[in-house]
What does this fold into?
Amino acid sequence: MQNKFFSQRKDRISNHRFVFVSVIAVLLSVSVSIGSDWIGGGNDLSAGSGAPESGLYVGAYAINISPIEFPVIVNGGMYERTADKVIEPLHARCFVLKSGEKKIAICVVDSCMVPRDILDQSKAMASKTTGIAVEDIMISSTHTHSAPSSFGALGSSADPKYVRFLIPQLAKGIKFANDRLQPAQMGFGIGENKNNVFNRRWLMEPGTAATNRFSGKVDDRAQMNPGVANGNKIRQLGGVDTDVYVVSFQDRAGKPIGVLANYSTHYAGAPSLSADYFGLFANLIQKEWSGGDTKFVAAMSNGTSGDTNCLDFTDAKRKFDRFTVARELADTALATLKEIEYRSDVAIEMKQAELELSIRQADEKELTAAKKLLEPLKGSKPRTLEQVYAREAVLLSQLPSKRKIVLQAIRIGDLAIATFPNEVFTETGKKIKTQSPIKATFNIELANGADGYIPPPAHHKLGGYTTWRARSSCLEEDAEPKIVARLLKLLGSMKD
Ligand SMILES: [Zn+2]
It folds into this structure.
């Protein structure tokens, strides 16, 4: 009896960038003490002709999720908007990976955010048609702010027509990716792009930061997007993550199947409806890496962009738009892709945990004042900042005081991915990247739910928009360390 393990690797590190280089297939005896659940699942590579090929299988499919009924509600802003046309189409970009007995799905959706109850329905449908366990499906949002609303946040509601359309569409995308499973190989690399990520939270002179009386905060010292000319800003309150992770899948003959990328900045801005730079990036990679193969799928997943965006408040001359951001990130990704080497002997692992957290809610006094402020609106949508946060206080008071959120860790060969259902600060993402036992680990935010910002506790003390109590920032102030600890535990359980 033979067991075959392929676990050796060599990493080349140079200038903040390393590319997974090569793998030596090492034949080890069965006595090697290595977690057998992590090893590709008992494929017999010596099988004769006619036997199924062993190793990695990958299928990819991008399903159009542009709405078919208009107008449609668009969220992502302070106040509700609607759109009546598609400027650039929206997609759910799905990858199904299989190795041995393990099969997983990764789906990146052109949406601002999608809440757990919707995604759970899509996952259940996809699971039925593909046999992939619900816990082995990851669905994340790119966080484009110019997409139909499937989540009520700040001044916007979810659009019920769009939600009804989206749920089965996501399931279909995963099924079609599953239908395309084929023998494959993968590799990954890490590029760097410093041009399009800036920390947007600034420490302000006392008494000068924006605030509002229904935020649950007082004496804010932090302000988001203070403006270049604002003389009250002192310094940025965090750093940036400049990594551009690029995971590449191709068939065994070297024909590209798909690329999953990851970068940690907010949307660039686009007219509705548009997939923003995320969609434009995918188009560029499809055209320039696969030669325009319509079956090829590229996706740009959002890393940890809770406190970062494309705006540089130290440079009045900086100009950018979704096209320049997509172009520059595509250039970084294409350069990285050229250095990737591939392997087919890739094992897959995916683990999910639920974490119960408390919800921050207003006290009786605040609620009474909030309801009084909202009375004149007679149920119509809020039109001022104060009204938005008063309404959020009331809506949060109607929700359960505790919530279970979904956390996942994924391992594909020597690469790991940690997922949060939140908008995540850079320093939180870096904790995962530096403390993960798997050297190459990246984060995907707004995955498997829409549970809002999770500022680290020290940031809660400083106040500012991302800490203001709302459905998009409602988890307890200790959520961040609890989530990080749980994710590191999940990643630790995968260490070989
Ligand atoms: Zn956002």
